[in-house]
Amino acid sequence: MSRPAKAAVLGLLTAWGGFLATIAPSLGRLELDLGLLWLFKLRGPRAAPEEVVIVTIDRESSDWFGLPNEPDKWPRKLHARLVHRLTQSGAAVIAFDVIFDEPRNPDQDQLFAEAIREAGNVVLFEYLKKKRKRVAIGGKQAEIEIEERLPPVSELASAAAMTAPFPLPKVPVRVNQAWLFKLGIPTLPVTALQVYARPYYEDFLRLLNEVEMATGETQRLKSEWETAPGQSDLTALAIHLQKLFQGEAQLPQSLLARLQSSESLTHSQGHSVVAALIRVFSSPESLFLDFYGPPHSISTIPYHRILAGEGEASLPVSFKGKAVFVGFSEQFQPEQKDGFYTVYSQPDGLDISGVEIAATVFANLLESRSVTPLPLFLHYLVIVLWGVAIGFLFLFLNAYALIPTAVALAVGYMSVAYHLFVSEGLWLPLVIPLLWQLPFGLLGALLWRYLTIGKAIRPYLPDWFWRRWNRHSEPPPAQIAKGVCLATDVQQYTPLAERLELNQLYLLLNEYFQNIFEPVKFRGGEISDIRGDAIMAIWVEAVRKQSLREQACLAALDIVDAVAEFNHRTPEVSLPTRIGLHYGKMVIGEVGSRDHLEYRSVGDVANVASRIENLNKILGTCVLTSGEVIAGLESIFTRKVGCFRVRGRSQPLAIHELVCRTEEVNKTLRDHCEQFEAALRIFQRQRWQEALLAFRALLASYGNDGPSYFYLRLAGHYAQKPPATSWDGIIDLGYVEERRKATRSGLTVTAEHREKSWKKTSM
Fold this sequence. Notes:
About 50% of the residues lie in helices and about 20% in strands. A hairpin with a 2-residue loop joins strand 3 and strand 4. It has 30 helices and 24 strands.
């Protein structure tokens, strides 16, 4: 088969795979949950229209009025005052996203109804209640679920300009869409737009009459509107216009074209409002919300601030000609009672309130802009063409150019999708093209071109991998470099292994290693050896010396934290861990034969790191390091615990305890370390009685401390049997081990001292 034919086949397979993924319900849902989220996160917040304002019933207002933070228990005379205040300031429409389905104080209900009637522009919320009803189907009784409208109390409903529902899902799913029409009637944002648009409705109906010869029904509605528009007339007009626009697909475009050339609407706001009416009646029953940003992105004013003063000047903003939505909305998550999960839900749990979603729908309609997914045909076309293009292209590219080209294509596609989303609100599919088709086409090109997995992935893996893959090749040449070795070991592992079942021990070790491997990898190290419960990690000098040593020290501290967390989760099988670090020259390479190769370090550094780790057992510490590791590191706080000559090594080592990061040090911890080092200097000057007093004072002041206890015992021993006069302050661990074996208790601190934590000292 020729290469163009292969490319065509791969392109068609990639396209077909994308198409199947698109129609799969789970992946289709992923496009909604993940793809749309990416676009909103990349775009960020955008400015909301100034014509929309939210008056929020919140904790701040409840406290100001001295009322419970429950909107349905507020006295309705407050709402009457709010309506009067907003009407006097020129609000175009006032929409209450509050339930008024129960009568209250008759005087206050009447006062509120009079305020609503006088304003003439108030829209009230209708509650939708689900109920089960038994019906006869085919001679059998069946139970169905229906939604029933529960309007406000009759006194308030009859006074309102309109009443309408606004259903939102109270389940843990993201709200991406909102209803424009429900149960055949307009919802709260649409009715608010109708009332808001009343000054331009005559122009809208005249425009409709110019474009299409109006039906008798339209003429009747127009006549009733011009005479005395009522609540039922507005609802009937909305229902009729929606049916008219849905039945004639070309009518909306004809109206918009006529609107642009109309001379009767010279005011720009009139054009936008009439365009919004055309859009709402020609849209499907629901739309995808174009959120403006996190909660309170739409101008939001606490309820009490509207009633706090008298006169226009006391208002926080001008309400003239604006749409005002009144409802429950909080600034802090613990107080939120009416929140809905959206793309802009906050990490602290704060969601967008129902009233803000209603205001968002209204603002989207007013702007004639919402999130618009591609029509189904275009959606499938994009998926198919993208699949064909990447499959065809990948099979023609050189292997080394595949990944860079795939990255460039992903960036290019994402840029186009981002631009269309920001400028037009157009939503292109992202998940299937980028996370499904692109990897599918890439893998298909590799497998098809090279036929074997080895050839397909060889350009992307290092040479040493292939030497290990091919057992018949010679081991790679060794590399001499400077680096850090980190050795760990678990205390009291042998009795633990004896006590646990084999399967239980296997699972425990796997979880333990997972916890300590992660800090090593995160800090740039590599696990070079595992022996039972012990590991060896290395940092080879590929970066600056100081950075390399600093990362190894930080990894050691992270391992301490990870082990502490692990032991806290499994107290019955605790695995306290000792760590040792050393820096110097090492040989890095593969050790073994053709049948068994391991990538590891060889040399004095690894042996010394193991010896330093073992020294923790004698000093009762957790993390020890040689002076070579921490030289010049200002970000790591240590204390010097002495100079030691480890077994099998003639050169002494300056040993330091790795305590914490420098920014974590407090005065108590610093004083402790300074006093210890002062006592150590006294000990090294062979002033044994003074050293005894100094270390006893340290233990009395700061509690159990392994190194202090070690030197207290050793100073007591030297006070009775001083070392040779030529002693230079260096402690021979071989001598200490021999003495420990001879005395059976010797100088090794107890397990209680080994478990001592610097965190206790630093508190």
